[in-house]
Amino acid sequence: MSSVCDAIDALSKAHPDGRDYYVQGLDATHKATDEHRSRVHRLASVRDELAAIAEAIHDQGGGR
């Protein structure tokens, strides 16, 4: 889970910069931003799933 969190942090820092897309038009910047958000969201979903698994494992061992 730590590696997924690191990936989210790294990806978040590498967000699209409009200066890289201005020659393609405003729509290109919006599309790149939407794609970026989607990637971050998918990683966050994996992180949340792993956290739920870890919590379930922890809860199973709580009565021992």
Description:
This protein is mainly alpha-helical. It has one domain (2-60). The chain is 73% helix and 0% strand. The protein is built from two helices and no strands. It has helices spanning 2-13, 26-60.
Task: Write out key terms for the chains shown.
64 residues; mainly alpha; 2 helices
Q: Largest beta sheet, briefly?
A: none
Roughly what percent helix? over 70%
What structural class should be given to the helix and strand makeup? mainly alpha
Q: What proportion of the residues form beta strands (DSSP E)?
A: under 5%
- N-to-C series of helices and strands: HH
User: Which residue ranges are poorly predicted, with pLDDT under 50 across at least 5 consecutive positions?
Assistant: none
Number of domains: 1
**Which geometry do the CA atoms define?**
elongated
The average pLDDT score comes to 93
List the helices and strands and how they pair.
Elements: H1 2-13, H2 26-60
Helix pairs in contact: 1-2
In short:
This protein has 64 residues and is mainly α.
